[in-house]
Design goal:
Pdz3 Domain, 51% helix, alpha+beta, 20% strand, 6 helices, 6 strands, 2 domains, four-stranded antiparallel beta sheet, 178 residues, two-stranded antiparallel sheet, single chain, LIN7
Length: 178
C-alpha cells in the first residue's frame, strides 16, 4: 500500500497537533505532578508503592483532561514572616484544607503561584488531604527552607464551605441572643 502526499500531510498535521499538546500548560502541569510524586515517594521500594504513586499521578492527569482542576506544585521559601497565607478546613470540619487568604505583601503574594481557593494536598511530600486542620498547620509551621506544596484550585468548593461556616456561625449567634 502506497503512502502518498495526503498521508504525509495528515501525519504532519497530527504531529503538529501532538507537539502543541505536549508543549501546553496542561502537559507541563501533569509532568510537574509526576516529577513531584517520584521525588517524594521512594520509587526504589516495593512495586506496590511505585504502582500507587503512578496511579495517583495518572488519576490527576485524567482529572485534568476531563476539565477538573489538576494538582500543581508550588514552592515557597519559608522566611521569618512565614509563608504568607492562611488555611481553613480539615477533617474535623468535614472539608478539605484550603488556602483561605493570601496575605497582601507576604511571600505567597509576592511570588505568586498560590491562590485563594487552592486545596492543600501535601506539604513537603506529606499528604494532608483528609487530615485534621492542625496537622497541616503543624507541618507548615515546622517547615524550613523551601516549602513544597501540592495544591489544586477549586474555588467553588471553598465558596460553598465558607457559606456553610457563615450559616453555622449565624445560627450560633442567633442561639446565643436572648
Amino acid at each position: 500500500m502506497s503512502r502518498g502526499p495526503l498521508h504525509c500531510w495528515t501525519s504532519c498535521k497530527e504531529l503538529a497537533a501532538l507537539q502543541q499538546v505536549l508543549q501546553s500548560d496542561f502537559c507541563a502541569a501533569v509532568r510537574e505532578v509526576y516529577e513531584h510524586v517520584y521525588e517524594t515517594v521512594d520509587i526504589t521500594g516495593s512495586p506496590e508503592v511505585r504502582a500507587s504513586a503512578t496511579a495517583k499521578a495518572t488519576v490527576a492527569a485524567f482529572a485534568a483532561s476531563e476539565g477538573h482542576a489538576h494538582p500543581r506544585v508550588v514552592e515557597l521559601p519559608k522566611t521569618e514572616e512565614g509563608l504568607g497565607f492562611n488555611v481553613m478546613g480539615g477533617k474535623e470540619q468535614n472539608s478539605p484544607i484550603y488556602i483561605s487568604r493570601i496575605i497582601p505583601g507576604g511571600v505567597a503574594d509576592r511570588l505568586g503561584g498560590l491562590k485563594r481557593g487552592d486545596q492543600l494536598l501535601s506539604v513537603n511530600g506529606v499528604n494532608v488531604d483528609g487530615e485534621p486542620h492542625e496537622k497541616a498547620v503543624d507541618l507548615l509551621k515546622a517547615a524550613q527552607g523551601t516549602v513544597k506544596l501540592v495544591v489544586r484550585y477549586t474555588p467553588k468548593v471553598l465558596e460553598e464551605m465558607e457559606a456553610r461556616f457563615d450559616r453555622q456561625r449565624n445560627a450560633r449567634r442567633r442561639q446565643q441572643t436572648p
